[in-house]
Design a protein that fits this description.
With 122 residues, the protein is an alpha+beta fold. Helices cover 34% and strands 20% of the residues. The protein binds zinc ion. Zinc ion binds at residues 86, 88, 96, 108-110, 112.
């Protein structure tokens, strides 16, 4: 009781009450975890990202490998074929589109080789 009286006199008790109410107000305004509300593909994507796969649907631009026939750029796909856009020159404004099929490496008109590799679906 004596320490409580000392805190009141020093104003510490009032600071504590103010801090606690401020924290409680912040907690009430926080958004819920999006994983709790996500369903379907969005949920699968969030779970994959959470497990460390930052590109679960292979939507990021691939960095070109050497591009030779012996060392082609590997393109992952869950299907037997995939369309690839090749930016043949660094500052080119046009994209060369080509289909690549499983087991058949393909050469772009610029001379770069691509090969389809199998990826397990989510
Ligand atoms: Zn090309």
């Amino acid at each position: 009781m004596a320490s409580l009286c000392r805190q009141i006199i020093r104003g510490n008790a009032l600071k504590g009450v103010l801090l606690n109410s401020a924290r409680r107000g912040y907690a009430d305004k926080m958004m819920p975890d999006p994983l709790e509300h996500a369903t379907g593909l969005e949920r699968k994507e969030l779970l994959a990202i959470q497990s460390g796969d930052d590109d679960p649907f292979n939507m990021k631009v691939l960095k070109k490998a050497a591009g030779t026939k012996a060392n082609p750029t590997l393109v992952p796909s869950c299907f037997d074929a995939r369309i690839v856009g090749c930016i043949c020159e660094e500052h080119s404004t046009a994209i060369s589109w080509l289909w690549i099929h499983k087991g058949q490496p393909r050469r772009c008109e610029c001379g770069h080789w691509y090969k389809l590799i199998e990826k397990t679906p989510l």
